[in-house]
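User:
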Amino acid sequence: MQLGMIGLGRMGANMTERLLKGGHHVVGFDPKPEAVARVVEKNAVKADSLEHLAQQLTPPRIVWLMVPSGDPVDQTIQALLPHLKKGDVIVDGGNSNYKDSLRRATLLKGQGLQFVDVGTSGGIWGLTEGYSLMVGGDAQVVKRLTPIFQTLAPAKDKGWGHVGPVGAGHFVKMVHNGIEYGLMQAYAEGFELMRHKTDFKLDLAQIADIWRDGSVVRSWLLDLIAKALTENPTLEGIAAYVPDSGEGRWTVVEAIELGCAIPVISLALERRFRSREPEPFSDKLLAAMRQQFGGHSVKRE
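Assistant: Predicted structure:
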């Protein structure tokens, strides 16, 4: 099967390579020529522009986007539209907000184009392990794209599925990432507690490795924790600063709108915000209040 891949950052490039190994014909485009060159080395076909990409695909075309969420997706779609025809399919495999996906699907439907939203998980390991794909879209269109999903997934019948209509794929991926926040926070706090029990002189890398087999808390995240602690037991050189890329925020906002309690995910998100405050003003204010009402001493900077 042939398709165009737009956005050849690390994940897009890895997905392209996996598709090529699976026997698919891939035409690749990225604003950065060096990114295109990397996938051409893997036998992808080079496209110098979006128009050139569309010209090299036989209608009805399949164009897969792996670009940053928000305006970049809208801008890419608008630039593509003059070069596509009725029956062509645009797939957004990035971390877009599902509400944006619903809006884009409506826009494209009015022009006779199909839209499929695919929540994609797997990160840098997807090339070798396969990607988890949460697919939203019309059943007939998804059926047509099934060989692509089967190639990208860990196995033809594992790690991917059609989860619902347009928007459902990115909605499920949003919740997936919210859960990820909570899991990561729980692991981090548990290892923090063990690190504080200094009289036991616990080897955190050893404990992570023990838990990887037979334990109720075993997981791929734990495998990665064991790897990280083995390579760098004190995490020297790593700042206690945790970014968020948006999905956790969207999950919490959705929960508020639906009146659904998700305290663990909400607190995990707030903890990431907290990690970015080198000197939290709220903590200073707490110290000042204790001094004001009780005369308690404060630690000076």
